Amino acid sequence: MKTLRIGVIGLGIGRWHIEGYKTHPAAEVVAIADPDAARLAELGDKYGIAGRYADAAAMLRKERLDVVSVTTPNKFHKPLTIAALQAGAHVLCEKPMAMNAAEARQMLAAAKKARKRLMINFSFRFTEQSWALKQQVDSGILGEVYFARTIWHRRRGLPGLGGWFGQKALAGGGPLIDLGVHRLDLALWLMGYPKPAWVMGAAYSPIASRLAREQKKKFDVEDLAVGMIQFENGATLEVEASWAANIKERELMETRLLGTDGGLVQRNRNEGYDFEAELYLEKDGCQFDMALHPLVPAVKSSMHHFVEAIVTGKPHIATGEEGATVMVILDAIYESARRGRPIAV
Ligand SMILES: NC(=O)c1ccc[n+]([C@@H]2O[C@H](COP(=O)([O-])OP(=O)(O)OC[C@H]3O[C@@H](n4cnc5c(N)ncnc54)[C@H](O)[C@@H]3O)[C@@H](O)[C@H]2O)c1
Which label site among 22, 41, 106, 202 has the fewest CB atoms less than 10 Å from its CB? Predict the structure, then answer.
């Protein structure tokens, strides 16, 4: 089996990409890029990676890479993804795919032109529970899904107040584009990515803006956003996301689908990053609850999945097209919040 030469740009969550690639025998991370010299040295030494670059453009010029992970702040997803595609690599880009849908479309066009793959790291699909739920939903157990609700709230979980996450020019938005994007993708994936028709949204920032003022930190995005999406097939989906909300839980994640024959929930346990899943069914006038203890092993990681798809020539999931659909919905929620009226997509 040919070994794929892999480069990782951005070494925050990028370190988990390096770990993820390690799970596939056909993957070898040969180069990393980050202007942060300390991170470059730390991870280069830890994983024995020879190619170390302060500048991603230099890495793309000098290394012959088969796959590139783009794991930088959101603002750089588009230019770096396009540069990597043009350099002849398949790209695994972190979520959110881009700052907005217009950028996402440019990335799709670049992938098409280069005839390379583009995958978005919707990592919440790659858990045993999500994997098992997807199999159940695809078997038709829920009947027709007509309503879903997908949420991620934090009591106080602002990522680095004053850093790039809270600045619109670098992040594109707040918790909706950061956390909501994961839950939105999970619900849409389970629902089969129906086509959005109408979106209504609202965004607020009472808590984070106060904290930022008190601490004299830069912050110009929302701390809570909510959206309702109506699809062409008539189904609706509610999405909620916050970094700061007056709730009991430290982290609260839940995705629910309601169908004509059954419902499901996937949620986090103990306010952490451990998940459980249940199905609620009706048969012969009786209601059943089914706790899902996944029997199907999930793929090891999104990186493993991407590499496996490339070496076997099979399609990968979490496509650039799906990433772009998420961006269209996020744009519409923000626009609706700004204008105070529903937006036709
Ligand atoms: N899938 C997930 O579960 C998940 C989790 C966390 C973060 N993310 C996403 O990953 C991305 C990075 O987030 P993070 O938490 O790692 O941020 P971070 O700030 O911790 O790390 C970003 C790194 O990118 C580097 N960087 C900045 N500009 C660069 C450039 N032009 N070229 C190369 N490197 C550059 C920075 O020096 C830094 O080391 C974001 O898009 C975020 O949404 C995804």
Answer: 41
pLDDT tens per residue across span 248-282: 999 999 999 999 999 999 999 999 999 999 999 99
Atom of ligand 1 nearest to the CA of 159: 15
Q: How far is the CA of 302 from the centre of ligand 1 (A)?
A: 17
Mutate to test the pocket of ligand 1, among 17, 19, 94, 107 (most ligand atoms within 8 A of CB): 94
Q: Give the contacts of 109 (CB within 8 A, at least 6 positions apart).
A: none
Per-residue pLDDT at 35 exceeds 90: yes
CA of 140 to the centre of ligand 1 (A): 38
Closest CA to 218 of 157, 162, 160: 162
Q: Please list every protein residue whose CB sits less than 6 Å from any atom of ligand 1.
A: 9-13, 33-36, 39, 56, 71-74, 76, 94-95, 121, 123, 178
**Rounded to 10 degrees, what is the CA torsion of 183, 133, 131, 231?**
-40
CA dist., res. 56 & res. 15, Å (int) = 16
**Alpha-carbon torsion, ordered 119, 228, 166, 328, to 10 deg:** 40
pTM: 0.98
